[in-house]
Amino acid sequence: MQLSLGNWVLEEALKQLTIWNTQGFNTKVSINIDSMQLNDPEFSQRVLSHLGDFTNVDPAQLELEILETNALEEIQNVSQLIEDLQSNDIQFALDDFGTGYSSMTFLKNLPATTIKIDQSFVRQMLFDSEQMIIVDSVINLSKRFGRTVLAEGVETELHGLFLSALGCEQAQGYGIAKPMPANEVLRWTQEWQCPTLWTQVRRLSPSEVDSLLLVVEHIGQCRALRIEHNHHTLRTTPFEKMDFINWFCSLASATDPRLHQINQQIPSEIESLRLALNHGQSCDDLAHQSNQIVANMLKVIFRDVDFELPSNCKMFEFD
């Protein structure tokens, strides 16, 4: 059943590529490959046979996506399969990267052209500095290995801004487009406009990335304050993580005095918000204050960009 379904998906993808090519829309289609297909000794020949039936399709327009977990047990066979089909110009992507048991092994031994960062890391990178560190590391590793890197789960304009600044130029997610019927794709490509912020931003330097990580940590701590406030468990002592934040600030090698100011400002801002909540300051005032702090910090980090925090974008709420 799985093999039959996989064959049907492959054939439908090639049919759709034929239609789009006829319309003058030359694009690439990615399809997921499951473990049964990977272990099928006839899979490679079957793919090539299907391609032979669709002469209007360039093999490079077909990309096969492999999940890390599906490649785990047969990594040598999967590596050989990829090499065989790549010799016929078929593309491969390693999907949901970072969620498997041996991500670094796959990056080294599987010659996939594209590495797709799992959406679980991308979605949380705006308020979880550890997730952002993972995303930044995968981007840099992928580039070191000569791979294209793509981020999954881009839901907002800020996700795209941060990713562009970290050096990731390809993405997918609801912030770009939601799933749609194939006959609507061509019109969408003609009407969609890339957010200006994404095209203006340059790749950040290491010291600027450090400062951005601290801003993300600030956002995360403020979200934690919100949760504690909503559950009436607001602490009366500083966050346990404040020692780490202060230590990280001391290491951040910001030669730019404006970045240095951000690095020094964040710990005190977090503590000021906690104390203000404990003293009964208005939640609305604090939410506005916190968003303004973040906006001002991001303006410094993205100084080459005409940056304004979108009016409907509230990084955190206190209600």
Q: What is the name of the CATH architecture of the largest domain?
A: Alpha-Beta Barrel
End-to-end separation in angstroms reads 50 Å
**Count of strand segments:** 6
- Outline the biggest β-sheet: 6 strands, parallel
Count of DSSP H/I helices: 15
- Radius of gyration over all CA atoms, rounded: 23 Å
Low-confidence stretches: none
β-strand percent reads: 5-15%
List the helices and strands in order: HEHHEHHEHEHHEHEHHHHHH
The CATH first-level class of the largest domain comes to Alpha Beta
Query: Which strand order spans the largest sheet, edge to edge or round the barrel?
Result: 1-2-3-4-5-6
Number of domains: 2
Query: Shape from CA axes?
Result: elongated
CATH superfamily descriptor of the largest domain: EAL domain
Mean pLDDT: 83
Structural class: alpha/beta
CATH-defined fold name of the largest domain: TIM Barrel
Proportion of helical residues: 55-70%
